[in-house]
UniProtKB/TrEMBL annotation:
CDD domains: HP_PGM_like (cd07067)
Enzymatic reactions: (2R)-2-phosphoglycerate = (2R)-3-phosphoglycerate
Single annotated GO MF: phosphoglycerate mutase activity
Annotated site residue numbers, Transition state stabilizer: 155
Domain of life of the native organism: Bacteria
SUPFAM superfamilies attached to this UniProt entry: Phosphoglycerate mutase-like
Recorded family membership: Belongs to the phosphoglycerate mutase family. BPG-dependent PGAM subfamily.
Gene3D superfamilies the UniProt entry points to: Phosphoglycerate mutase-like
Protein EC: 5.4.2.11
Organism phylogeny: Bacteria, Pseudomonadati, Bacteroidota, Cytophagia, Cytophagales
Protein name: 2,3-bisphosphoglycerate-dependent phosphoglycerate mutase
Active site per database record: 9, 85
Keywords, in A-Z order: Gluconeogenesis, Glycolysis, Isomerase
BP GO annotations: gluconeogenesis; glycolytic process
Length: 201
């Protein structure tokens, strides 16, 4: 019975400044590095053998801190832009509170949490799902089926897209679901890749 663990990177500089980040390649904050370390401590008893990450530094750094903490720096690591955060388009860099005040709560929530409304020049969650899930099916699911335990370090929205697929979450439900930074979420599958158990550490 294979295990998949997903973890959203620790707090980033723009999480702290409350700015839309998307594909902007910002660093972790000191708290973000501490969150990654705590995730590593929680993950020590877990026997993952392969890791995947986006190619954004906040996810890579989070993964590296976890691997060091778990004494697993030699396991194979695969990086892909398919796991990158949703592109937030023209919103990237803007302060979230100011954006909400300028455009109103309804428009703000449509851009931020709806399934299929994309911000100008950006991706909707559906667009993100359309790149994350095929990558997952091709590169990750096959390894899980072969019995490998896997860790993925990625982002709030790229992982929400993946959660929709794995947990059968509908477009109507997904606006209410978020993932905290640095909190590992564990999936256990049966042979047919049906989720048997899912829990946060
Ligand atoms: O700014 C972002 O890229 C994401 C994740 O931090 O934000 P949100 O929670 O608004 O989707």
């Amino acid at each position: 019975m294979a295990q998949l663990i997903i973890v959203r990177h620790g707090q980033s500089v723009w999480n702290l400044e409350n700015r839309f980040t998307g594909m902007t390649d910002v660093d972790l904050t000191p708290l973000g590095r501490e969150e990654a370390k705590q995730a590593g401590i929680l993950l020590k008893p877990y026997n993952f053998e392969i890791a995947f990450t986006s190619v954004l530094r906040r996810a890579i750094e989070t993964l590296n801190i976890i691997l060091r903490e778990c004494d697993k720096i030699r396991i194979p690591v695969f990086g892909s832009p398919a796991l990158n955060e949703r592109h937030y388009g023209d919103l990237q860099g803007l302060n979230k509170k100011q954006t909400e005040l300028k455009y109103g709560e309804q428009q703000f929530l449509l851009w931020r949490r709806s399934y299929d409304v994309a911000p100008p020049h950006g991706e909707s969650l559906k667009d993100t799902r359309n790149r994350v899930v095929p990558y997952y099916q091709k590169e990750i699911e096959s390894k899980l089926k072969a019995g490998k335990n896997i860790l993925i370090s990625a982002h709030g929205n790229s992982l929400r897209a993946l959660m929709m697929y794995m947990e059968n979450i509908s477009p109507e439900e997904i606006p209410n679901i978020t993932l905290a930074t640095g909190v590992p979420r564990v999936y256990e599958f049966d042979q047919d890749m049906k989720v048997l158990k899912v829990f946060n550490l």
